[in-house]
Amino acid sequence: MILTIEITNKNMQKKFIAGSVLMAIVCLIVAFSYPSEKLIAPAKLAEVIKDPKATKPVILNVGPTPLIKGAKYIGAAEDPTNKERLRATVKDLPKNKEIVLYCGCCKLEDCWNIHEADKIMSSMGFTNYKILNMPEDFTVDWYNKGYPME
């Protein structure tokens, strides 16, 4: 289905075009980026999980993907109910507790679940949480590599 809009007023045409261009620009630049010190590589987390002597971080699944070994399922963090579940899960943890957030539903730079979880953790004063760096998605960056699963 194609929607055709005819605008006869020249001033309205200019506003419509300007608004369309602005919307296109916004859509192109809405990509999330995170500083490298906030990211943890999948290989590094897998190594920690496999090492019986290593101190394990709290691993929180804030998306719709399968569980990494030892992870707690929160659910898609863009959902208000799951935002509250995330807050309730971490509220009594020390602010410097090692925590890893992951989703993997899509590219990390496009992930609203990670974006929302990151905002929550930051606003609650957590200082030692990491985001699992999955530039492609869960399947490519974790599952296909044979990393630990529940």
Alpha-carbon Rg, integer: 20 Å
CATH class: Alpha Beta
Query: Helix tally?
Result: 5
Content-based structural category = alpha/beta
Instruction: Going across the biggest sheet, name each strand in turn.
Output: 1-5-4-2-3
Largest sheet: 5 strands, parallel
Order of helices and strands: HEHEEHEHEH
Strand segment tally? 5
Number of domains: 1
* Unreliable residue runs: 1-5, 19-29
Helical amount: 25-40%
CATH topology: Oxidized Rhodanese, domain 1
Assigned CATH superfamily: Rhodanese-like domain
Rounded mean pLDDT is 87
CATH architecture classification name: 3-Layer(aba) Sandwich
Multimerization status: single chain
Compact summary:
Helices cover 37% and strands 11% of the residues. The chain is α/β, with parallel strands linked by helices and 150 residues long.
What does this structure look like?
With about 150 residues, the protein is an alpha/beta fold. It has a single domain (about 35-145), classed as Rhodanese-like domain (Oxidized Rhodanese, domain 1, 3-Layer(aba) Sandwich), CATH 3.40.250. About 35% of the residues lie in helices and about 10% in strands. It has five helices and five strands, in the order H-E-H-E-E-H-E-H-E-H. The protein has helices at about 10-30, 40-50, 80-90, 110-125, 140; strands at about 40, 60, 70-75, 100, 130. A five-stranded parallel sheet has the order 1-5-4-2-3. The longest helix has 20 residues, at about 10-30. It is globular, with a radius of gyration of 20 Å.
